[in-house]
Amino acid sequence: MLVDLRMRSAALGALFCTMALAAPAAAIELPTAQARAELLDTLEREALYRDRVDWPEMRARLSAAQGNPEKIRDVLKEAIGRSSGGHGAWLSVERMRSEATRSGRATAPAAITASDATAAAQSPALDPRIGQVEIGGFSVVPGPAVVQQMQERAARWQAIIRDQDTGKRCGWIVDLRGNTGGNMWPMLLGMAPLLRITKEGEETVGSFATAKDPSPWRSTPSGMRLGTRVIVDLGTPGYRLKHPGVPVAVLTGPRTASAGEATVLALRGRPQTRSFGEPTAGVSTANVVRPLVDGSALVLTTSVMRDRNGRGDGLKITPDQHTRSDAATVAAAQAWLLAQPACAGR
């Protein structure tokens, strides 16, 4: 899941799932000596948890490991892991190339624009008054079509909601249990019909918290902004529910990670919203990509995600109601929705 290096926006870069530093045992890939020095300098200067590392000691260990690829790899992996809380990574040139190829196949335009009628089908266990949308992980392919990919994916999720919104839905389930991360912006825009509670204007639904002022995530009727910067926009107002502001149940689990956790936080604090399931993966922090001198890249963890009320610590997000099995989670979410005034009177 490679984004435009130099992160034409720390915004477009969004959030990455954890990636392993280690290459297959047959061929250990490493940054060049110059890139290794640059990598450590960048971590010491910018990494979110940089104070957790003794940098002189780390450099001494790296120097002592010269000539031993396995030890070099292990030192770099430890430096990145400790300073990022386990969320950062080093990406070799080959890794980036293969990720781009894989993502390109997974997000081909035909797949993005295809009908999602089958994906939007109601679960047999759900009351017909309850709508449901699954927001899964999604990564963009770097290049000039990044914005188009985000627009198309967001429009697809909004269409899933629109196709179910017959006017008879009194509550909705947003299923994030399988959302392993990627790019958060199309996720937030895709579920905007459920996320937003007003028709006009901007709504702050979360933020990135750094040592400086927080950078708010802002939902508009047609797009998403980071502060005042437009990240993705449909060009025209997106879909609006027939009954805006209805109750929403959010499903989470241990696979809900990174951008998936950003999506959880964007919904947390929304009126008439409650979460169910198990705690998330615990990487509710934001990454940007820094290119290194040898063409490889550092996925650098720089900030903590927070909800619309300024709450967030970069760790696991605990649901409001802990349920263990998938069936129990869906049942608890449905029971809560049907007990709300919007459903109880129908």
Outline the structure in words.
This protein is α/β, with parallel strands linked by helices and 346 residues long. The chain folds into two domains: 19-86, no CATH class; 128-283 and 302-344, 2-enoyl-CoA Hydratase, Chain A, domain 1 (Alpha-Beta Complex), CATH 3.90.226. The chain is 35% helix and 18% strand. The protein is built from twelve helices and twelve strands. The protein has helices at residues 10-13, 33-46, 55-64, 69-84, 93-106, 109-113, 146-164, 184-190, 192-195, 259-267, 326-339, 341-344, and strands spanning 89-91, 130-134, 171-175, 203-209, 215-219, 223-226, 229-233, 248-252, 273-277, 285-291, 297-306, 321-322. The strands form two sheets. Strands 1, 4, 5, 6, 7, 10 and 11 form a seven-stranded antiparallel beta sheet that branches. Helix 2 runs parallel beside helix 4. The termini are far apart.
